[in-house]
Sequence to fold (318 residues):
Amino acid sequence: MNKQRVGKSSLESRGRSALGRLLTAMVTPFDARGEVDYQQARKLALSLLDSGSDGLVVSGTTGECPTLSREEKLRLFSEIKSAVAGRGTIVAGTGNYDTKESQDLTREAERIGVDACLLVVPYYNRPTQQGLREHFEAIAQGTTLPCIIYNVPSRTVTNLAADTLIKLSQIDNIVGVKEASGNLGQIAEIIQGTREDFLVYSGNDSDTFPILALGGYGVISVASHLVGVQIKDMIKKSLDGKFQEAAKIHRYLLPLVNALFIVSNPVPVKWALNYVGFPVGRPRLPLVEPDEKSADLMRATLKNYRIDLPIRRLNSKS
Fold:
C-alpha cells in the first residue's frame, strides 16, 4: 500500500510550522543594471503567496543561485522573510558542491530565521554515493533547520541513489527531498523506504501528479509563478482521492509546463513574467533571453491560460 502523506509531518509534531505542499522555486528579480531588485523580490513573494503558494524557495536553481553572491543570498533571505512576515514558509537554497561553504551559508540562513534549507546534490566534482551521504550528514549536523535534499541529475550529472537517500532520511532534521530525477521507479522506492513523515516533493512540474499518486507530498514548482491556484487545486483533488479530476488539471497544464522548459530554466519563466506584466528583469550571464522562436511559442501558449499571479500588487507599497 502506498504511503499517503496526509497526517501531521514531523515539523508539525515538533511544533514547527508546516512547510506546505506547494512551494514556488522563486525567480530572483534583477533591475536594468543587472542588480538584485529586492523591492520587486518582496512584491513577487507576496504575490506568489496570494496565488496559491504555501511557501517559497529562495536562491534555488530558478533563482539563479550560481550567479548570486553570498551577500546577495543572505539579503534575499532577510528581505523576503521580512516581507512574508509569517504568511508562508521560506526555504533557503544554501547547498552547493563545497561542503564547508554549504555549512557556513546554512548557519547564516538559520540566524536570519528561515524555515528550512534546500541542499542540492553537489555538481561538477561527481562525488560517490558515500561522499554524498557524508556531505549531507555534515551539513545537517551543523544546523537545527529542516533540510530538504535536491536531486536533479540532469544538472548535477550525479544521481542520489534511493538507498543513499533512505539512509539519510533517518537523520531527524533531513525532512524531505525535491526529486527531479524523472525516475518514477526510484521515487516510488524512496516513498516506500523512507520514514512515514518524510516529505517527497516533485521537482519537475511534469511529474507532480504521478508523484502525488505514488504517495508524494507536494511540489517545488516553477509553473506556480503563473498558475499557482490551479496547481494547488490539482494537489487538493489528488489528496481528496479525486484522481480523474486532478489528472485532468495536470494534462491541461502540461503544454504550459513544456513551454516553460523549452530552453534552460529560469529563462522562459522570467520571460513569461515580464510578458504578463510582472517585471523581473533579464537573467544574468551566462544565461540570456530566449530566441524569438521560443518566445513565439510561449506567447502562443500563454494565450490559453488564466494567469493566477495578481499583477495588481506591482502598484502596492509593500
Notes: The first helix runs from residue 10 to 13. The domain at 14-242 is CATH 3.20.20.70 (TIM Barrel). The chain has one domain: 14-242. Confidence is low (pLDDT under 50) at residues 1-17, 313-318.
